[in-house]
Write a structure and sequence with these properties.
The protein is 7% helix and 45% strand. The protein is mainly beta. The chain has a domain of 161 residues: Jelly Rolls.
């Protein structure tokens, strides 16, 4: 059953059509258009961005470091400084050289002076030697180090300074001449007390010098070919110097 108002409205339309000779057509209502959603481009977050493939670095044409301690052979001497008779020792008002506690102690309280102690034997010609030097009182240009090829007072003097430098001098016929250095290197301690391992490779007229396994320099010479070993200290000013030397080892050099 239709509502009264609707029937009245329809009747009125039919009456109006009949009077005007018009025809009324009821067209279905156009369906309401649902808007089509427009796709919005949302940027995608790239959580793991691709990593560019690294190009390999070119391989350098490295030149191998030459072996500066070749042909080390058998152990010839191992001195733990337990035999004082193997070294020249003594004491006076200006210094002391004594073997004690597994070390050779050199103490000097005279300004601008040297103090030496050498082994009585054996005599070495071609060899590789290592010695630990431990200064306890030392400053500035004061020196300490190793003597090699000592014969009749002539020798090579491998010296470290207390400010971290190294050199080699040759004492020959009463004259001292510089053979290498001064060289500054971080391997040489400049803070006292400290400790260093001195190394010397000697074969014929060629001698290489090392500190704590680091090569420093070489000397080529035809004056001194053999001799004993020794140690020394030197005061460059008026202060005192005190250094202990220990753990001396000497190896042969193979032909």
């Amino acid at each position: 059953m239709y509502p009264r108002n609707l029937l009245t409205f329809v009747s009125a339309l039919l009456l109006l059509a009949a009077l005007s000779g018009c025809r009324v057509t009821f067209a279905p209502a156009a369906p309401s258009e649902t808007p089509t959603p427009t796709a919005t481009s949302t940027p995608t977050t790239l959580w793991f961005p691709p990593t560019a493939t690294a190009s390999p670095f070119p391989t350098p044409n490295a030149t191998p470091t030459p072996d500066l301690r070749p042909g080390i052979g058998e152990l010839l001497l191992e001195d733990d400084f337990s035999d004082a008779a193997a070294w020249a020792t003594g004491r006076d008002d200006e210094g002391v050289a004594q073997v004690s506690g597994g070390a050779m102690l050199l103490g000097l309280n005279a300004g601008h002076s040297y103090l030496f102690s050498t082994r009585t034997s054996p005599v070495f010609k071609d060899f590789y030697a290592e010695l630990t030097a431990s200064p306890s009182l030392c400053r500035g240009e004061d020196e300490y180090g190793l003597l090699i090829r000592n014969v009749g007072g002539d020798h090579y003097r491998f010296a470290l300074s207390c400010d971290g430098r190294a050199k080699v001098d040759r004492y020959l016929g009463g004259s001292l001449s510089r053979q290498a250095g001064w060289v500054q290197n971080q391997a040489i301690p400049s803070v006292i007390p400290g400790s260093s391992r001195l190394g010397v490779w000697a074969s014929g007229g060629q001698v290489h010098f090392f500190v704590n396994d680091l090569y420093l320099f070489s000397v080529s010479d035809t004056q001194l070919y053999l001799g004993t070993l020794g140690v020394f200290v030197h005061t460059s000013g008026d202060g005192d110097v005190s250094v202990s030397f220990s753990d001396l080892s000497v190896w042969s050099i193979l032909e």
